[in-house]
Design a protein that fits this description.
Helix content: over 70%
Number of strands: 0
Largest sheet: none
Distance between the termini: 42 Å
Number of helices: 17
CATH class: Mainly Alpha
Shape: globular
Strand content: under 5%
Number of domains: 1
Order of helices and strands: HHHHHHHHHHHHHHHHH
């Protein structure tokens, strides 16, 4: 049953987002436990990666240049566009929060499903996640109002628990548990991760549905913003890395568009303003349509490249 879910995970992620939209009360009920699910998803993903090779990747300057592109440059681009379009301060702050966000920890699995380098995707995800607190802090200072104050003790505590916690626990497991046993256990755990991933589109879309209930116009407005953000980040990543090769450009595109918005919300919470929660929900459907889109564009572009 779990292997069947894994095989059709791309379509099921879309179905999960639609079901969350159709049943907002259930979506809201799941929302409070999502940070705990996120913790274990990050941990299980890290346990499945060869630590020595992953650390080697993280010492590559190319990975950190990507992380700067992912967070700093895309903040500059998306917030500049938002200001040119006279976005409200609340929406601008929400967009700045999304722009600072690291990539989804499900990104390596998505990369692997289309034949791209999952290990490199994991390194890019970790680098963008580690850079996120710095860029997020700068964005909050720049885009919050003049009365903004950040509870640094709470902020650092959440960073330690939800970012460094899974990384540290994973490193300790690799240090003290025999590798053959660890990989055998992870083989079982990896089948569970798909169920964990399905919880996010279902549980995060509730606030977006509430906006639809109050105003159809506002609902479609936020959906449009979510589509534009996903599209902008995807094609910015693709175009920026297109000169390298097809695989690298698609890997950058996937990693740029997939945003771990729940982690940012868990770390910064109410500092991100009311629009962030709605935008977080509006991003779910376009984000989880990306795996199917990437599979199709990868096949199409690959065929084109083969004929050149």
């Amino acid at each position: 049953m779990i292997s069947l879910l894994s095989k059709h995970s791309s379509a099921l992620l879309i179905v999960a987002a639609i079901l969350g939209f159709l049943f907002p009360d259930t979506s809201f009920a799941l929302f409070p436990v999502l940070p705990y699910i996120l913790f274990f998803l990050m941990l299980f993903t890290l346990l499945g990666m060869p630590q020595a090779l992953l650390v080697k990747q993280l010492f590559n300057s190319e990975i950190w240049l990507y992380a700067l592109f992912h967070s700093a440059l895309l903040t500059l681009i998306s917030c500049s566009v938002a200001m040119l379009l006279n976005a409200s301060p609340e929406l601008l702050l929400a967009i700045a929060g999304v722009a600072a966000t690291g990539s989804l920890f499900a990104t390596p699995a998505i990369a692997r499903s289309v034949g791209l380098d999952a290990l490199k995707a994991m390194a890019m995800t970790i680098a963008s996640t580690l850079l996120m607190p710095i860029i997020l802090y700068i964005n909050l200072i720049v885009f919050q109002d003049e009365h903004f104050t950040l509870d640094m003790q709470s902020y650092l505590q959440r960073l330690v628990i939800f970012i460094f916690g899974p990384m540290l626990f994973s490193a300790l497991c690799y240090r003290f548990i025999p590798h053959h046993l660890l990989h055998r256990v992870h083989g079982k755990l990896s089948q569970v991760t798909i169920i964990l991933v399905l919880a996010f589109p279902f549980g995060l879309i509730g606030p977006f549905r509430e906006v639809f209930n109050n105003s159809l116009t506002d609902g479609f407005f936020f959906l449009l913003i979510g589509l534009v953000i996903c599209g902008l980040y995807f094609f910015a990543g693709y175009l920026c890395y297109r000169r390298a090769d097809l695989d690298q450009s698609l890997l950058a595109a996937i990693t740029s568009a997939n945003r771990n918005v729940l982690l940012t919300f868990t770390v910064a919470g109410s500092y991100l303003g009311p629009d962030y929660l709605v935008l977080m929900g509006a991003l779910q459907l376009p984000t989880y349509c990306l795996p199917l889109f990437v599979k199709n564009i990868y096949k199409f572009t690959g065929k084109m490249d083969d004929t050149q």
